[in-house]
TrEMBL record:
Native source organism of the sequence: Pseudalgibacter alginicilyticus
Pfam family, one: PNP_UDP_1
Alphabetized InterPro entries for the sequence: Nucleoside_phosphorylase_d, Nucleoside_phosphorylase_sf, Pur_Nuc_Pase_Ino/Guo-sp, Purine_phosphorylase
Enzyme Commission number(s): 2.4.2.1
CDD domains (UniProt xref): PNP-EcPNPII_like
Entry protein name: Purine nucleoside phosphorylase
Single Gene Ontology MF annotation: purine-nucleoside phosphorylase activity
Family: Belongs to the PNP/MTAP phosphorylase family.
Keywords associated with the record: Glycosyltransferase, Transferase
Superkingdom of origin organism: Bacteria
The keyword Transport is annotated on this UniProt entry: no
Length: 270
């Protein structure tokens, strides 16, 4: 993996990706943040050596470098998932690349279903902790200790200072921002009634199919990390209706302006 990382970083540096300060993973619900960036360079994933390729139809596939609120940023426009057939090392490879390029902070967005029924679709949730239900770890491979401490501490995986800033920004902009625990599952199928009941019992406030692997690797690399979910549906096992993916995407798009306000305002302060 070290050889692959070196090849990829060299390629991107040669393309002009110079010393970004902040990495951003644009999941469902934050795609239009691209319009706010002064783009200096962009490269399709399928042109980057050793990079996976986004296969989900509503995820783009570009790595973008530019200026946002006066800061140099490197942005993943589209992410990777276990359910696409990738390994956890594939899914998190871009985080390792962004860190080698120079980022100190990683900001992440995603779409999630609300397990906590006090939370409503269209609202946002600041992730304060997570539950890994993906069956393995992105750190479970030979040689991981050459890239960082094998036994990575996860007592506080989400940066409390950044989270405090997010809460203050939300309050000043009248944005409803819940705080909660995000459970990450493999997917791509959605959950059964019994699974939603289980998730509530074990302490999840929302469920999705991403983010946790990237957060684990970011902590392995000692990056400052924060993540926000767009709540796209309400997962009430006693009143469960078939889910329409197009409705989920529409709900994410509806919440996008608030997500963009949070991220732009935060980046000003970093």
């Amino acid at each position: 993996m070290i050889k692959y990382i070196e090849e990829t970083v060299t390629y991107l540096q040669d393309k002009g990706f110079e010393n970004p300060e902040i990495g951003i993973i644009l999941g469902t619900g934050l795609g239009q943040l691209i319009d706010e960036i002064d783009i200096l360079k962009e490269v399709s994933y399928n042109h980057i050596p050793n990079f996976p390729t986004a296969t989900v139809e509503f995820h783009k596939g570009k790595l973008i470098y530019g200026i946002l609120e006066g800061k140099k940023v490197v942005v993943m426009q589209g992410r990777f998932h276990l359910y696409e057939g990738y390994t956890l090392q594939d899914v998190t490879f871009p985080v390792r690349i962004m860190e080698k390029l120079g980022i100190k902070t990683l900001l992440v967005s995603n779409a999630a279903g609300a397990i906590n029924l006090d939370f409503k679709k269209g609202e946002l949730m600041l992730i304060v902790d997570h539950i890994n239900l993906q069956g393995s770890s992105p750190l479970a491979f030979k040689g991981v200790s050459l890239l960082g401490e094998r036994f990575t501490d996860m007592s506080a995986p989400y940066n409390t200072q950044i989270n405090s800033k997010f809460k203050a920004i939300a309050k000043s902009n009248n944005i409803k921002l819940h705080e909660g625990v995000y459970a990450s599952v493999v997917g791509p199928q959605l959950e059964t009634k019994a699974e939603y009941k289980m998730l509530k019992i074990i302490g999840a406030d929302a469920v999705g199919m991403s983010t946790v692997p990237e957060i684990i690797v970011a902590n392995h690399l000692k990056l400052k990390v924060a993540a926000v979910s767009v709540l796209t549906d309400e997962c009430d096992p006693n009143n469960l209706k078939p889910v329409d993916i197009s409705e989920i995407i529409a709900m994410a798009n509806k919440a996008e302006p608030n997500m963009i306000t949070l991220f732009k305002s935060l980046i000003k302060t970093i």
